[in-house]
Amino acid sequence: MVTLKNSDMKKLLLLTLVLLVSGAMLAQGSKQTGIMKSTLAFHAGPSFPMGDFKDNNIDNEEAGFAKTGFTIDLNYGYQFHKNAGIGAAVFFNQYNATDETFDFTVGERNGELINLSMDNWKLYGITAGPMLTFDLGKNIMTDLRLMGGVANAKTPKISYEGETMVKAEWNFAPVLQGGLDLRIGTGKNMFIFTNVDYMYMKPEFQLEDNEGYELDKVKQKISVLNLTGGIGIKF
């Protein structure tokens, strides 16, 4: 079972608080007019690595070894026009990594198979951008979003026989997120929320060994497809 550490939860809650405060400020106009222009949705689901990020070929220098993971998201939307608005999101994603096996080619251990274990990739961030909204009828709405922002990503820790060989590293990078939402109304203020979105970032990491000595700098393409579902409110 996947669990979140306290530090990860604190970071996610802080980003959530920022989004909620921003949404509350924008919603003041909606309360004054009596028209519900704001939406807030909590959703979660599987996240599928794509391209180099999911590749586990050790001959590919940009392979990420990422397995299918999960994403937890909070989306906010504000419509200033029937078909146009702005959207924002905070997210947390995690992906376990495939253990790596390769031939040891040095000295007396030449030809020996070495198994390196890796824990997981993590990333969290916040995005915002324009949103197009279309009424499909029968209390069904769809939103098309294109958002940009910033995310903090963590590399997997690499270990050999229980000993850390390469430490996990965090770094920030710009992130691009685009997707399609479907909102199915279940009452005056409530709706079922489904989403598919694509996210891309390319952070750079300064890797270090277990004694703190700097290793190579690496850039990792992180591209994922998220499929989520959840519930939301209009206000």
Main sheet summary: 8 strands, antiparallel, barrel
Quaternary state of the chains? single chain
The general outline is elongated
Q: Would you identify the regions where 5 or more consecutive residues have pLDDT less than 50? A: none
Helix proportion:
10-25%
State mean pLDDT (0 to 100 scale).
87
Count of helical segments? Answer: 2
Spatial extent as radius of gyration: 21 Å
How far the N terminus sits from the C terminus, by CA atoms, comes to: 35 Å
- Strand arrangement in the largest pleated sheet: 1-2-3-6-7-10-11-14
Binned strand content: over 45%
Element pattern in H and E: HHEEEEEEEEEEEEEE
What is the total tally of β strands? 14
Category by helix and strand content:
mainly beta
Describe this entry's structure for a reader.
The protein is mostly beta strands and 235 residues long. 11% of the residues lie in helices and 61% in strands. The protein has two helices and 14 strands; from the N terminus they run ααββββββββββββββ. The strands form three sheets. The chain has an eight-stranded antiparallel beta barrel. A four-stranded antiparallel sheet has the order 4-5-8-9, with no helix packed on it. Strand 8 and strand 9 form a beta hairpin. The mean pLDDT is 87.
Outline of the structure:
The protein is 11% helix and 61% strand. It is mainly beta and 235 residues long.
Brief descriptors of the model:
235 residues; mainly beta; 8-stranded antiparallel barrel; 4-stranded antiparallel sheet; 11% helix
Fold blueprint:
Blueprint: H1 6-26, H2 28-33, E1 38-50, E2 69-81, E3 84-96, E4 100-104, E5 112-118, E6 120-137, E7 140-154, E8 158-160, E9 163-166, E10 170-185, E11 190-201, E12 204-208, E13 214-219, E14 222-234
Antiparallel strand pairs: 1-2, 1-14, 2-3, 3-6, 4-5, 5-8, 6-7, 7-10, 8-9, 10-11, 11-14, 12-13
